[in-house]
Amino acid sequence: VQLQAFGGGLVQAGGSLSLSCEASTRAFSPAFSSYDMGWFRQAPEKEREFVAGISWMGVTTYGVDVVKGRFTISRDNAKKTVYLQMNGLKPEDTAVYYCAAGFPPGRGGIRAEEYDYWGQGTQVTVSS
């Protein structure tokens, strides 16, 4: 599966952004609905950290310390797209945001090594 993230940009603190990640799958490859999907982020000179995940069954998981109820992950299997709605953005949310896919179903969790496919990343910058 190939992933492409969209929606990053520059926003003032307190604002909102909606990221999307579109997947393209090849013929005879697993359906998008079979993948666990996740969002990670990486700020300069920091390790990549888990933001949110949604399993193939639609179960969501959040990096609590990171998002504290401000972010919402969702997916639309018909559109092969996963979304990350980010509200109440803070300067410390500034990072490159990556979407990721894990297979087989149930593989994707909160660790980056549990995901096999990664998008190119989209920059989110929050000004104070």
Q: Would you kindly provide a written description of the structure presented here, covering whatever features stand out?
A:
The protein has 128 residues and is mostly beta strands. It is 3% helix and 48% strand. It has one helix and eleven strands. It has one helix spanning 64-67; strands at 2-6, 9-12, 17-24, 36-42, 49-54, 60-62, 71-76, 81-86, 95-102, 117-118, 122-127. Strand 4 (36-42) and strand 5 (49-54) form a beta hairpin.
Keywords:
48% strand, 7-stranded mixed β-sheet, 128 residues, mainly beta
Number of strands: 11
**pLDDT average, as an integer?**
94
Number of helices: 1
> What is the helix/strand order?
EEEEEEHEEEEE
Task: Give me the secondary-structure category.
Answer: mainly beta
The rounded Rg comes to 14 Å
Low-confidence stretches: none
Portion of residues in beta strands equals over 45%
* Shape type: globular
The profile of the biggest β sheet is: 7 strands, mixed
Helix content: under 10%
Distance between the termini: 37 Å
In short:
This protein is mainly beta and 128 residues long. It has one helix spanning 64-67; strands at 2-6, 9-12, 17-24, 36-42, 49-54, 60-62, 71-76, 81-86, 95-102, 117-118, 122-127.
Helix and strand arrangement:
Layout: E1 2-6, E2 9-12, E3 17-24, E4 36-42, E5 49-54, E6 60-62, H1 64-67, E7 71-76, E8 81-86, E9 95-102, E10 117-118, E11 122-127
Parallel strand pairs: 2-11
Antiparallel strand pairs: 1-3, 3-8, 4-5, 4-9, 5-6, 7-8, 9-10, 9-11
